[in-house]
Amino acid sequence: VDEFETPALIVDAARMRANIDAMAAVARESGVALRPHAKTHKMPEVGALQLAAGAAGLTVAKLGEAEVFADAGCEDLVIAYPLVGESKLARLAALARRARVSVAVDSLEVAEAISAAGAEVGVRIEVDSGQHRAGVAPGDVAELARAIAALPGLRLEGVLTHEGHAYATDDLAAATHAVAELMARAGADTGVRDPVVSLGSTPTARLAAREPGVTEIRPGTYVFHDRTQVAHGAARPEDCAATVLATVVSRPAPDRAVVDAGTKALSSDRLNAPGAPADFGALTSGWPVVRASEEHGVVAVPPGGELRVGERVRIVPNHVCPVVNLFDEAVVVEDGAVVATWRVAARGLSR
Amino acid sequence: VDEFETPALIVDAARMRANIDAMAAVARESGVALRPHAKTHKMPEVGALQLAAGAAGLTVAKLGEAEVFADAGCEDLVIAYPLVGESKLARLAALARRARVSVAVDSLEVAEAISAAGAEVGVRIEVDSGQHRAGVAPGDVAELARAIAALPGLRLEGVLTHEGHAYATDDLAAATHAVAELMARAGADTGVRDPVVSLGSTPTARLAAREPGVTEIRPGTYVFHDRTQVAHGAARPEDCAATVLATVVSRPAPDRAVVDAGTKALSSDRLNAPGAPADFGALTSGWPVVRASEEHGVVAVPPGGELRVGERVRIVPNHVCPVVNLFDEAVVVEDGAVVATWRVAARGLSR
Which of residues 209-238 of B touch A (CB under 8 A)? Predict the structure, then answer.
């Protein structure tokens, strides 16, 4: 690892495999399908490990990501995003001819356009279970389901939600239970026999898998975990499998070190947990990156703390997904040695 | 522009040229050198326009950026960052054989390593003028200058600072004057005859150019401007030359629209101005993106506001530099027509 210039994205292969296996066991033991969200890692090699461990398929956010994973051999993809625009629908139709594809839909006009474009795809109605981002209100599912069922080319599968609002709660179990109940009813409202009822987030995944009516979980971050997941009790610090390797480049004051990982390596995402401090990540020693500009991270060094110019540190990200998106490749480490570099093949593919 | 899939980075060529010309005039009329920070645009085509308008050379943050601009023919580069590590110094030495290169240094050990690596480069002592990021204390300049002057290969040129703390002030003029005075003294402390005294930030640039003792300005953001610059009075809304083109993908409630530009297109950077609202950018209509996840931007739609699914909008970024870093290419528009696509050639090059 010492040969790699910094900043670099480091993946601890053993930790990653343990995370993959643990979530696969959760799904297996609860009898639900696991469809990991690949937007966290964006790497075909990681997706292949998830599928080999028993995942039913992969979730992606965007068509460009779906194309990358289909190219890599993944044959079952859910695009958890409303696809809008002629050229996107032409690409969707082409993709659906070479892989099993389902898409999230939260309006009739989007469903009609997909049908009109000749795409033969599965459809999952996206439900707003409390995050208030996209998604139809639960009470509107039945009507939208009836309309979609009449559209040629579309096979209605059930419902899907991202319960992102759970990150703001202190009681994950209660929040997950409420979402699961709401979604099970929404699934029944589709009129589909044995509907897919799919929930998606890492902190709720273990709880959601055991809720009656839930048939699928779509956690993403679990593959690497991060400080936000640790803050929610969804991971231990030693589960964090992706870190940013950085070099101390300046030591201007005893209480301050500057590392060469700023927001271009760590992103500007803060910890997504109630009452969390507003930092940009933390060294494995626990010392936080208290300020960051694009190429500078300012580490708060405690009294007596040692950190020399030239020393290398590992930074645990607050939110690993946008961090991966900032790197072109990941350096994969096993037993202290570099065993591979993987291209972040779906980086930047927001189209 | 309608043919480009979203999200896309759009550059208004006429506005950009006007911004380039305006800052060139500021420097020319004040008799200071203009050395634009290329980290904002990361595009050789834009750097070439800045040089053609009279820039003395370019500033970059990282060696990888310097290599891209040298490849593109820029022969005078300042790397405003302490370079640390054997492989970086080998690259620096190679770069210095094909371009005039100066580097920022804020410790003797970094200077000694550069000298030992055989790099023949200019050196500017980075001074902490109040931001408290990297940089030596003003009182330590004289001693460091004497030590650097004795190192083979290094030609001491003067001093450099990034007065980023000016973004936190309500009185830019007073803050700029204080930095300029401090830096002029620091320049004299180097013992260099006619030292470079270089200040760098867009909101202070026009003021700094007129301060006695200042010999160079290094603004970056001015080339495109953004909402932060407008908040500081350094630009008018109609000066903002880079926007994110996005599509409305969901309209789940009358007061809420979802666009396909989230933090992967807008970054998570908030407005960097005192008392500014915590949003993620704003449509050209003024409607703010009040929440964002990686692929979703949630727009607050005022009562009666119309925004249909499929409609395209332009979003003005809070901080344009990290936004450019998220795109592989920029779509250049002139008189409503696409005239070029430029590769963001130095994107992601934090090494």
Answer: none
